[in-house]
Specification:
The protein is α/β, with parallel strands linked by helices and 305 residues long. It contains 16 helices and 7 strands.
Length: 305
């Protein structure tokens, strides 16, 4: 009952109030970390930048990077661009892990950065991003900004028309172009691309360890296992069931777009995104159909998927 009341209040609180509350909570947690958590290892980099587009598990990655154990083994404190009310291309204070930055590669390049830093970009099959965005905007995303405007439109449309609407909406928001900009960016030692599907798949521990290693954060195996358990999908699924239908999580799996894209939707998607799917290294429509496993393992998307 308490959790449901909290969720209702969260969904009906003005955005500026929610941001102010989050700022207070984050600053309190930062102060507590500095006072109570001993730093046993220092990261060699001054800043870490988590860049992405929406519907790629950004809140889950942020939760992992904000966990106290990351501070303990890096000395880097969490930094939330929106909560801290910074605007691009303002510099991020040193000694921070900035997450999540919804920016294209050129906008990221414009941010002043220290000499020693690491960045990574999390991508996802853009077809699954479309499906995830549809269900999130229609059903579960916290009311903020223009969410309620789009939700009203989507609830009045059949699913097919709603998905076509979302494709255009994401294009207008430059999500596809931002994703493309990172995929075609010149290779550099300072940043790496990671896939949402790998970070949440069967080899999750290895993939997250690789991400941490890229960021110069060496977590002992036991600490990494405990970290993933604290932020595991089964725990999120339990929280979803406890908080009811307004919870910002739903079941999903890689390739779920196959269940929602018909010929017309796929044609509209390709007309909008061009060769983005192939450029990102995801299977074509025919390849995905051939590899479809009706018994494939489902995962819980931690960003409202």
């Amino acid at each position: 009952m308490i959790k449901r009341t909290f969720t209702f209040a969260k969904h009906h609180t003005p955005s500026n109030v929610r941001v102010a509350v989050r700022w207070t909570m984050l600053e309190t947690r930062i102060a507590r970390s500095r006072l109570t958590i001993p730093v046993v290892a220092r990261c060699e980099y001054d800043n870490i930048y988590h860049c992405t587009v929406r519907k790629t598990g950004s809140q889950w990655v942020k939760a992992i990077l904000s966990d106290p154990v990351v501070y303990q083994y890096s000395g880097l404190l969490p930094f939330d661009q929106r909560v801290h009310r910074r605007r691009y291309p303002d510099a991020i204070p040193p000694g921070r892990v900035a997450s999540s930055l919804f920016v294209g590669y050129k906008r990221f390049e414009a941010i002043p950065k220290p000499e020693k830093y690491r960045a990574f970009f999390v991508m996802r099959d853009p077809r699954d991003i479309v499906v995830s965005s549809y269900f999130s905007l229609r059903n579960s995303h916290t009311p903020m900004g223009d969410v309620l405007h789009h939700r009203k439109i989507l609830k009045e449309k059949p699913r097919k028309e709603g998905l076509l609407y979302i494709i255009n909406h994401l294009a207008e928001k430059n999500l596809f172009s931002a994703l493309r900009s990172w995929v075609v960016a010149p290779s550099a030692e300072t940043f790496r691309l990671f896939r949402y599907e790998d970070l949440t798949g069967e080899r999750q521990a290895d993939e997250v360890e690789e991400l941490m290693r890229h960021c110069g954060i060496a977590l002992p195996p036991a600490e990494l296992a405990a970290l993933l358990d604290r932020h595991g999908f089964s725990r999120m699924r339990k929280n979803r069931l406890e908080t009811g239908p307004t919870a910002h999580y739903r079941k999903g799996k890689a390739g779920d777009w196959l269940n929602h894209f018909d010929d017309d939707i796929y044609e509209a998607f390709v007309a909008t995104t061009g060769n983005l799917v192939e450029l990102c290294g995801y299977p074509s429509r025919d390849e995905a159909r051939a590899a479809l496993d009706p018994n494939g393992q489902q995962s819980l998307d931690p960003n409202g998927q």
